[in-house]
Amino acid sequence: MAASVEEVSSSVVREYLSRKGLRRTIACMDEEHPRTAASINNRSHLRQILNMEGLYRQNKAQNSPLKTLLEIIVKHRIEGLKNDKITCSESDPLQSTPTISSITSSPAVTPKLTDDAKTEDSTTAFAVSKHIKMRVKSLTRLNVADLDVSEMVLDDIDDDDDLRELSKVSFKRSVAEHNYAGRPMDQHTAMELKAVLLGSSLNCFSVEWRNQGFTFSETHDLRYGIVQKKGGPCGVLASIQAFVLKKLLFENTETSNTGLQRLRPSNTTRRKCFVLAAAEILWRAGEEKKAIIAINSGRNHFTPTGQYKSEGVLEKITCFTVDNMKDMQLLLEQHIDQFETGVLGCLLLTISAVLSRSIEKVRDDMDVPSTTLIGAHGYCTQELVNLLLCGRAVSNVFDNDMELDSGNGNMTLLKGVKGHCDIGLLSLFEHYNICKVGAYLKTPRYPIWVVCSESHFSVLFGLQRELLTNQDKGLEFDLYYYDGLANQQEEIRLTVSFGKVALSCQDVDADLIPPLEQCIRTRWKDAFVNWNDTEPIL
Question: From 77, 196, 449, 474, which residue has the greatest number of CB atoms within 10 Å?
């Protein structure tokens, strides 16, 4: 079977990039043109396919041998050797160093697997040149300072009589042994993803989801806040916002700022906090063993057929699997633009969380396996919010699991939260006795809560961890509220108090009490909330 011209050309390019130490460029190539099962990663095998063993030996005998197969091929063509088959010439064809630009005007060789078959001139060199130019162009879109990716090293072993025992492929990394090998999305996985997210592989993501990234506010007092364009993915945005605040307020060791000063971060600081927040969410979803990061490669990896409606989203995704937190942070930093300013950022994070957990486990987490993560009108379901907050897509917010007698000796298992979470949740549904939020979510490790009110998710947070444990009736503290969808232009500071001041204000008409206050009282019963001259949100 003849080797594919495209695969051989790609392998020649990768060999060149690897031998030249162009690690960043090879990472871009692996992202936009992922390796396949037909990729040739063995240098000895590649030489055999190209029928250039003799030429390779001749090059090795030179005082300054060329390092890459591509250079040897190009030099051979430049010297004007007209033989159809690449062979070793009696004259020295390797006196000068070739340049990549010469490829565009030089023919190359279409390789065959059989030793006795003649090779034919083709456009291989042109394809090689096109690959290199495309990778260099794509590299300019990335922040080079943030890149630190894998390098493929094809060992250069001296020739002997048994070529089959020659060079083996090794992968060298600066941070870990695992390789950033991307796996293109296939139609089966895409169909399963659509089913668990939308209910059917024939459904499509709404424009509100497709156009939402993680862009921060430029309002001075709200620089920590992620802006939501339209309704729908608020549960995802509020969840990542909560973890960004955790990093910014309680784990940011690069600044001596405290309290409110930390809520005015620099572009660099808030970007780093977003990377750390996303990494924590995905790592927890992967049970702190591995995580999968979904990246838009910019080109389709499969042609949809059958019961699948194409919309140009899942078809373009490449999935990267990492097995440690540091590598995940590096990959997220490398592709930060896709999340922060890219229109698919919100979807990419959601898909990454589902794949990190695995579609099978997400379904198993739910009370009803057919439940979707994106519900009616494009709203996030509680299952999706729980996946991001707790790492499991459970359907309920109470503590642990609960068994209900469904009659005839049958028991129904309702699944809840399994332990204390870093980020909490308050729900207006609890005020109406529709659900019960357990202590694991109501009393998180950090004073940050995702607030569910009227099918919308927002964030409530404090600056001191002490308010989680101080139960004095005379306690008074401030909470800050942020809603990325409300076109918020100013800081909203709420003062929560107890005791005589609070009791004197409890005769207010219940219908006039803002839903946010009702949510707060599910956590601090009988508390009085002072909006500090800010217009209450109804």
Answer: 449
Distance, CA of 477 to CA of 494 (rounded, Å): 8
Asked whether the whole model's pTM tops 0.90, one would answer no
Give which of 490, 488, 491, 493 is closest to 462, Cα–Cα: 493
Q: Which one from 234, 273, 346, 519 is the annotated catalytic residue?
A: 234
Per-residue pLDDT of the chain (538 residues; tens, 9 = 90+): 567 888 889 889 988 998 888 877 887 887 678 777 678 878 888 888 898 888 888 898 888 899 899 999 998 888 765 555 545 544 444 444 444 344 334 443 334 334 443 344 444 444 444 554 457 444 444 443 444 433 343 434 333 333 233 223 332 333 333 456 789 999 999 999 999 999 999 999 999 999 999 999 999 999 999 999 999 999 999 999 999 999 999 998 777 777 788 999 999 999 999 999 999 999 999 999 999 999 999 999 999 999 999 999 999 999 999 999 999 999 999 999 999 887 899 999 999 999 999 999 999 999 999 999 999 899 999 999 999 999 999 999 999 999 988 778 788 899 999 999 999 999 999 999 999 999 999 999 999 999 999 889 999 999 988 888 766 556 789 999 999 998 888 999 999 998 655 555 555 566 678 999 999 999 998 899 999 989 887 6
> Of the listed 346, 431, 456, 519, which one is catalytic?
456
SS3 476: strand
234 is catalytic: yes
Dig out the tokens for 492 from the structure.
Answer: 């909203």
Residues in the chain: 538
Residue 335 annotated as catalytic: no
Query: In Å, how far from its chain's centre is CA 386?
Result: 18
Cβ(356)–Cβ(285) below 8 Å: yes
Q: Which two tokens stand for residue 284?
A: 């927890």
CB atoms within 10 A of CB 400: 13
- Residue type (1 letter), 160: D
Asked if 490 and 480 count as a contact pair (C-beta separation under 8 A), the reply is: no
Q: Let me know: does 496 contact 527? Beta carbons within 8 Å.
A: yes
**What is the C-alpha to C-alpha distance for residues 43 and 394, in angstroms, rounded to an integer?**
49
* Residue whose C-alpha is closest to residue 421's, from 462, 463, 392: 392
Give bridge partners of residue 404 from the DSSP assignment. 412
